[in-house]
Amino acid sequence: MIIAYFDCFSGISGDMVLGAMVDAGLDAELLHLEIDKLNLGDVRVHFNPTERHGIAATRAEVEIEGGPLAAADEHHQIAGDTNAAAGSVDHHVHRHVEEVLEVLRQSRLDEEVREKSIEIFRRLATAEARVHGVATEEVHLHEVGTADALVDIVGAVVGLRLLGVEQVFSSPLRCGSGFVQCAHGRYPVPVPAVMELCSGVPLIQTDATSELITPTGAAIITGLAASFEPPPEFRLRSVGYGAGRRPGREIPNLLRIRIGETEGVLARDQAVLVEANIDDMNPEVYGYLFDRLLAGGARDVYVTPVHMKKGRPGSLLSVLADAVQLDRVADIVLSETTTTGLRYHYVERRKLERSSVTVTTAYGPVRVKTASFDGVARHAPEYDDCARLARLKTVPILTVYEAARNAIERE
Is the whole model's pTM more than 0.90, yes or no? Predict the structure, then answer.
């Protein structure tokens, strides 16, 4: 498996990601051919050799003329998306989220690249919406809605694909301090949108008096990285350095990417575990509660018998969910159970790579989940499909299970 590890020792921005990938061996012309599929007009990304603190690096600069979003670029810059570059911001021209997403939908990008780019850009817009207290569709993208940000996001997604990267990892993110000038005035660093995007991500505060993590950079790395910790063991193939706009006095203003190969690496991610002790609720409620939590985004829900204070038997409710679903899960637990409080903490997960295929059996189609480890595959027919077909064909459910297992083995 080919992996990429981002060393964010001096933060991250969109242009630093592009520069680091080209420095690591990405063909710039192939990248331009993919970016042209956005139909943004005359777009060029200039990759220039430079150095930071004596380390050779590549600086990426996006140049855009004409196209559906260029007007916004002529009137304002993306605040904070130049990695430690602050300046005046003219915000007379705004773009709504749907305008930008429509550019992606109408592009000629491959479906996988297009959908991942939409996901990252939507997360960026959602973060801005939370900061300003409005609905996502009402956000005025004066800071992130330009073609420049779009090129950075699409370039990052397609660049990793061109490099053959199958999984992305990152170091903890180092952030600066001080203030930066944005469209709404002076913002503290890290800016609020970055804080929203980095919920659940380990941040290391530095005394560097500049903006190290930009909103676009935060959206890219949190949307792509499986974990934020030391890298797994891998054989190094190439290293690249992407330079920010300013040299950086305290530390070299660089983003480092390492490309390498590993075997049998487990997928890694972060989640939040929500817990509540319950000893006074009708147990019939749990079935309904589980359905609501799973429909609300929970990854797993389970109950463990516990012995509570005053000798009372009770239940420990545990809910595993993505960090972004914390508020929703908490609302469901507090509204649908008798508990008066809950606790939560962030956890790291290791998991096998999984996929799903549909097989044909004598009873009908059945989805089968597949995972593998050390070259050994494991197959698990989907319960809902097997139960539905067992009822429909009036046969034992185990018969359908066996038919599905036989079908996957044949295939």
Answer: no
